[in-house]
Design a protein that fits this description.
By secondary structure, the protein is an alpha+beta fold. It has a single domain, classed as CBS-domain (Roll). The chain is 38% helix and 17% strand. The protein contains six helices and six strands. A four-stranded mixed beta sheet has the order 1-6-5-4. Helix 5 packs across helix 6.
Length: 155
């Protein structure tokens, strides 16, 4: 089985200069085959080349104050106390500020076993899939690779 057989085709993407607020709206409305919103989405430049990737974790790092990561006592902090500031930040910040630029990709013609090896070795959950000219044509997800490989085992 090849990566192209299991990947989800690109239907939505972000751009580097897109406001983060718009990016969040796109991510929330972009659904995978199972009906749930995506947890990561590619960032394409004006020439439709891969510029980066944004995950829900990247966005959560902006929303949740960094001092809360290590503070066990959050009782004194309310969402209302930080909501206005975070709303202002996501309206002025662009995707470029939070996207991961050095993105690992995989060729559409690559095998599923090679894909699984990359996902596990590099501890990533999704890979943009490229065709021979380097253009992004889809995304392959760890969950889908797991489902396909384990289905082959039990059948």
């Amino acid at each position: 089985m090849k990566v192209k057989d299991l990947m989800e085709p690109i239907t939505s993407w972000l751009t580097p200069d897109m406001p983060l607020r718009e990016a969040i709206q796109i991510m929330r409305s972009t659904k995978r085959g199972h009906g749930l919103s995506v947890n990561g989405i590619v960032v394409l430049n004006g020439a439709m080349n891969l510029a980066g990737i944004v995950s829900t974790k990247d966005i959560m790092r902006i929303i949740i104050p960094s001092h809360m990561y290590f503070d066990d006592h959050h009782d004194h902090i309310s969402w209302e106390s930080i909501r206005q500031e975070k709303t202002r930040i996501i309206q002025s910040m662009t995707v470029r500020r939070i996207m991961t630029e050095d993105v690992r990709t995989i060729a559409a013609e690559e095998t599923l076993l090679r894909c699984a090896d990359i996902l596990l070795t590099e501890q990533i959950r999704r890979l943009p899939v490229t065709r021979s000219d380097g253009k992004v044509v889809g995304v392959i997800y760890l969950r889908d690779v797991y489902n396909a490989l384990t289905q082959l085992l039990i059948n």
